[in-house]
């Protein structure tokens, strides 16, 4: 390879061979066919049946979700073992997010329903089984008024109660 940037991304073909002789072969096609024909396969993002938008996922360390936490817990046993919660952001968007057991416990113990909160994904803890468990910092912010365009936060969340499993 040369230092010329225009050639850096091209495949170098050995002398005497034409590009037609280079073959690409998917080596796990049987497995892919098996998996993609399964009824449980989906290449789409999980869409919340309540917001008709993808679930909010904490993907990057330092990522923050903030807003008013609705007093609703959804049973997502058909999708995941986790519970999901609904938060109404400053922009008035309804974001549904999954909470691991530790985050759900913090929400319940601190009685954060209807409160303005900030959830920050700060990192991972390795479990004894080698899996990563997400760690969150949860901040309850006082003195924030309902500025999401609703007369009362409970009114904004009321429509969601019919789809709740009632646990909180």
Strand fraction = 25-35%
Please mark out the parts with pLDDT under 50 across 5 or more consecutive residues, or reply none.
1-9, 161-168
Helix content: 10-25%
Largest pleated sheet: 5 strands, antiparallel
**Count of DSSP strands:** 5
Global geometry? elongated
**Helix vs. strand class:** alpha+beta
CA radius of gyration: 23 Å
The overall average pLDDT, rounded, is 75
* Helix-strand sequence: HHEEEHEEH
Order of strands across the main sheet: 3-2-1-4-5
Helical stretch tally = 4
End-to-end CA span: 61 Å
Features:
168 residues; alpha+beta; 5 strands; 16% helix; 27% strand; elongated; disordered C terminus
List strands and helices in order, with pairings.
Layout: H1 5-8, H2 29-36, E1 64-75, E2 83-88, E3 94-99, H3 101-109, E4 116-126, E5 132-141, H4 153-158
Antiparallel strand pairs: 1-2, 1-4, 2-3, 4-5
Q: Please, could you describe this protein's structure?
A:
With 168 residues, this protein is an alpha+beta fold. It has a domain at 64-163. Helix content is 16%, strand content 27%. It has four helices and five strands; from the N terminus they run ααβββαββα. It has a five-stranded antiparallel β-sheet with strand order 3-2-1-4-5.
